[in-house]
Amino acid sequence: MTTHIPYYKTKLTGGFWKLKQDLNTAHTIPAVYERFKETGRIITLDFETPWPQGQEPHIYWLSDVVKWLEGAADTLAIGQGDNELREKCAWIVEQIAKYQAEDGYFNNHFQRVAPEKRWTDWNLHELYCAGHLFEAAVAWKEATGEDTLLNVSSKFVDYIERVFVTEKSAAFQTPGHEEIELALIKLHAATGDEKYLRLARYFVDTRGTPGTIPNVKAVQAHKPLREQTEAEGHAVRAGYIYSAMADLARIDGDESLAKACRALFANISTRRMSITGGIGSSAAKGEAFTFDYDLPNINTYNETCAAISLAMFARRMSALEPDSRYGDVAELCLYNGILAGLSLDGEKFFYECPLEIHPRLKERNERFPITQRVAVFSCSCCPPNLNRVLGSITDYLYTKDADTLYIHHFMDSETAFDWNGKAVSVKQVTDYPWDDHVAFVFKGMAGRRIAVRRPGWSDNCSLTAKTKLTNGYYYFNITSDEETIQYDMNVEVKLMSAHTNVWEDIGRAAVQRGPVVYCLEAIDNGDNLRALAVTPDAKFSLKPDDRLGLCLETAGWRVKVPADGKLYAPYNEQWAEQTLRFIPYYAFANRGESEMSVFVRVK
Questions:
Q1: DSSP element (H, E) containing 511
Q2: C or N: which end of the chain has fewer Cβ atoms within 10 Å?
Q3: What is the DSSP string of 22-46?
Q4: Within 13 A of 270's CA, how many CA atoms are on the CB side?
Q5: Kind and range of the H or E element at 134?
Q6: Which residues make up the CATH 2.60.420.10 domain(s) of the chain?
Q7: Sign of CA dihedral 361, 363, 369, 375
């Protein structure tokens, strides 16, 4: 069975993700903690302290805090953070253990505010909060070796199994907001205890079966999961339950689950995903998928957490079966749809990540995504989710089976682990994604096989090894205990067009270089970005920027304003040449309010 190489076995040594990980440690984790402290999220874990006026613990506040705890623990596990961070984490762990109910239950909202509502409403996030608590428990164990939260989790799971499986005394059968399923699988991986897999299987097998509550499309419960072929409902919840399905398909060898996962992934990646890896196009429908090719730009929802959930799903599919399509999607999410949720200073956040912004549209008094990132949200799930993604980003790098190490992504790093009693290591030397060259140094792997993903954006990769390409992976054998392989992916800037059924983007293109999607901002190019155009054969020059990353410039065009100023006139479009500057999509909205557009007209 294929398994992941844990993130804490890898140390980032430089490059793109090292900068982001260091930013997370130095700025993002402290900033999120301070906002959670100011809003009362932290202190309400101390049941003996009255909550400040207006700061009654909300139903999902526990999930916010324990997600932050998981991200902080990830940071400690990789050797970053300090004693102050450890002490903040330890205090949270202490409160949870101290105030866990005798029966095993823990939730600061339902224990302190509404005890009579426990297990009465599928949409009140109880099992969702529990799932994030369980994930934090695993991370805390990995960081410190302490079992405190694992013991809390074990007792809590026993109680949940009794209520939902044995007694069936809850008012619903499966979670409204999925998440606990994949968390239970993490608990099993950390402890080996089969009870966690048993409960995960129960929730996956029960969801959507006749007569169960909930039974709505909004939470993927409209039919049994094994029968689903189209991504429906709330996008974050979908990505989480699909992740659990992929895990169980791999662990159990469950082909019916694997088949459903393949269909759902194909539906998302070929019909229901923005070019940035964003998913869940509709706010009005419930932060949800709508229908095939409905991928708006200005008013798309594309929650940061949804891109994270899709990356998680893709990562698990890579472990289920090596196919470069999964790594391509995970990479697209990581460099674009996820990273756009975080400001360059690491302290402000987007919940929604649109593909186009016109600041004056807010004068319509209609609903549009915000145009500038903020420090905290009333529902603040995305900031701590970014904490844990960045702390454990190297989780995406490797998986292995009996004789093959799969390299899914490229980061300047050093990895060491035990492989069947033998110490092995992998070193990647690269400035990816800005540079397309990677040097791999393998030690202790004589007699092993390596599989390296060929990115879907590359037309011409080369390896200094005899290889065989299968399902988007180059396979080659390691013949000595110290071997260096050079890998060149030959990155080019490309104009990317959308399927013609994506009607908003007909006649327009997005600019992409490697895994990085680019955008225009008015701050560089002037107002009215829709008046700009590129030619199909545009040539781009690289313009490094210390703050924004690698920017691009090309000769382009702007439609001239009519000299007579008439509102309407016979068609006679006139063009003027203009140099266009594109910045990485993840870097937009960091220099003041400005128009932004990913797609640009093609002349």
A1: strand 508-513
A2: N
A3: HHIIIIIHHHHHHHHHHTTTTGGGS
A4: 9
A5: helix 126-144
A6: 400-488
A7: positive
At residue 138, the pLDDT reads 98
**Rounded-to-integer distance, Cα 231 and Cα 233, Å:** 7
Cα separation of the two ends of the chain:
51
Measured CA to CA, the distance from residue 222 to residue 306 in angstroms comes to 20
Whole-angstrom distance, CA of residue 338 vs CA of residue 350: 10
Output the average pLDDT for the chain: 97
The closest of 297, 298, 228, 304 to 268, measured between CA atoms, is: 228
Tell which residue, 438, 333, 452, has the closest CA to residue 393.
333
CA–CA distance, 177 with 67 (Å, rounded to integer): 15
What one-letter code names the amino acid at 212? T
Fold of 400-488: Maltose phosphorylase, domain 3 (2.60.420)
Residue 284 pLDDT > 90: no
Q: Which residues pair with 543 in a beta bridge?
A: 551
Sign of the dihedral defined by the CA atoms of residues 332, 304, 540, 19, in that order: negative
pLDDT of residue 565: 87
Catalytic residues: 287, 381
Q: Report the DSSP beta bridge partners of residue 10.
A: 415
CB of 100 closer than 8 Å to CB of 76: no
Rounded to whole angstroms, how far apart are CA atoms 174 and 207?
6
Q: Which amino acid is at 455?
A: P
How would residue 159 be classed by pLDDT, with cut points 50, 70 and 90?
very high
- From residue 339, alpha-carbon distances to 240, 335, 344, 416, 580 in Å are 19, 6, 9, 27, 23
pLDDT digits (tens, 9 = 90+) for 483-499: 999 999 999 999 999 99
Burial class (CB in 10 A: 0-12, 13-18, 19+), 360: exposed
Confidence of residue 227 (pLDDT cuts 50, 70, 90): very high
Of the candidates 25, 447, 538, 1, the residue with the CA atom closest to the CA atom of residue 253 = 1
Cα–Cα distance for residue pair 251/551, rounded to 1 Å: 43
Dihedral pair phi/psi, residue 95, rounded to 5°: -65, -40
Backbone angles phi, psi at 200, to 5 degrees: -60, -45
Q: What is the pLDDT of residues 7-61, one digit of tens each?
A: 999 999 999 999 999 999 999 999 999 999 999 999 999 999 998 888 899 999 9
- Cα–Cα distance, 308 to 347 (Å, whole number): 18
What CA–CA distance (Å, rounded) separates 528 from 213?
49
How far is Cα 417 from Cα 415, in angstroms, rounded to an integer? 7
Token pair of 554, please?
């090309």
Q: Are 587 and 598 in contact (CB under 8 A)?
A: no
Beta strands 516-521 and 575-584, pairing class? antiparallel
pLDDT in tens, 586-601: 999 999 999 999 999 9
Q: Select from 415, 462, 393 the least CA-distant residue to 74.
A: 393
Asked if residues 204 and 198 have their Cβ atoms less than 8 Å apart, the reply is no
| Chain-centre distance for alpha carbon 249 | 21
- Spell 53-88 as b/e; 16+ CB within 10 A means b: eeeebbbbbbbbbbbbbbbbbbbbbbebbeeebbeb
* pLDDT attached to residue 384: 98
Spatial distance between the Cα atoms of 474 and 466, rounded to a whole number of angstroms: 9
Nearest to 131 by CA among 153, 99, 158: 153
Q: CA 285 to CA 282: how far, in whole Å?
A: 5
* CA–CA dist 475, 472 (Å, integer): 10
